[in-house]
Amino acid sequence: MDEESQLLQPPDQSCWATLPDVCLRRVFWWLGDRDRSRAALVCRKWNQTMYSAELWRYRSITFSGRPSRVHASEFESALWYVKKFGRYLEHLEIKFLNPYNAVLTKKFQITMRALLSWLGKTNNRLKSLSIQHLELDRLVWRNSIKSSFIKSLSFFLKKMGKHLDYLNLKGARLTVEQGCHVLNSLSYLRNESVASELNLEDYFSHHLAVYSSPRFNKAMAAFHQLVSLTLNYNCISDELLENLCENNAGTLGTINIKCHIHDPHGQVIWGMSWANLARHAANLKVNFFFERVMKYERLARILLQEIPIRSISLRSCYFSDPDWSMRPTLVDLLPTFRHTLQKLTFEFNNNHESLDEELHLLILSCRKLFYFKIWAFLDVRFVERILKSQEEGQCALRTLKVRIYTNRYETNEEDRTLREIYRKYRKLINSNLNYFVIAYPMM
């Protein structure tokens, strides 16, 4: 072919021009907003593809709580996105990180009012909403700002509640009246909510005895399809357990309960209430998370033998109490749940007592245990004993995470011993064990 005929030939089209839309959408799915906006300017086809619903179903919007020029446009960008693509949203997560002053909380409230209002008008497919760690009981949230935000949120939930499947308001820290008002919005005009997952951890402010509130129990009675429920122990009562048994026994599979030292947790719950719920909700698993609630007497009042407990987490957050002993909990209380326990997490300061033997026996007694994590004062050889038991088939751990506290700055000796243990059981560890062990100076 001569040079003239080559010039008359049309140039080969790029492979991108013939790429099927489904492939193009998959490529665009990995791009950030800036790259997507640039890609939309390439050609008409790419611009049309950029409006595909599947590209905008998930959204996480983060607002910085600190005054900064870098983050100044966050509020405007969030509104722009919702107006442009909000109708496609199915899963929305909103974060407001540690607001610095009332000016920023006011700006957040105004932005959220506009954002939720626009979504309420244009979106009919939102399935999950997460707004975590607002901490509305802090002083930066003035009463007028807080009331306006709660009003906007409640109005939005009244509109979207008919198809909202997941709601996460962890860390909102509301009063009982405010919290129940928001919950009631989910069942507005229907007296029943379709939500299947509800996260109310730290939803109410600390020190509130929510379990004694008839208003809260009435609000929870509107939920009839719960699969997973997360809340604090200061919300648990016989009435709540009866409501869950009556309205959610056929669906309820998981209850996550947090018990914090600053939350009231002295209420009496009858074992028969738990037994009745466990009998009707056959697949129910209960997970407990304790923050600085470590004394045996308190734990024994809460951890009743009728509860189908799957996991227990006990954390003292480095606090040391020479009058406190972990031994009764390890020897007398936790083995009660040896037939159901699958996960154990411990973080405590036991500098005044050795617990290696008790912990080892507890692991051996819980035949379903597959996850064990501990941060405590331990002998380095404790790890070797666990691995030896694993090798002999006495336990079936899939995860072993150990932080061994020491009273010395230097941990060279412990590190050397741990390397020897790893070399000895390398084959076992590498085959089927998520293994992490470290010596850590605790001064």
TrEMBL record:
Residue ranges occupied by any F-box domain in the UniProt entry: 13-59
Q: Which InterPro entries match?
A: F-box-like_dom_sf, F-box_dom, FBXO31/39, LRR_dom_sf
Q: Which domain of life is it from?
A: Eukaryota
* Keywords, alphabetical: Ubl conjugation pathway
What Gene3D superfamilies is this protein classified in?
A: 1.20.1280.50, Ribonuclease Inhibitor
The protein in question is named F-box only protein 39 isoform X1
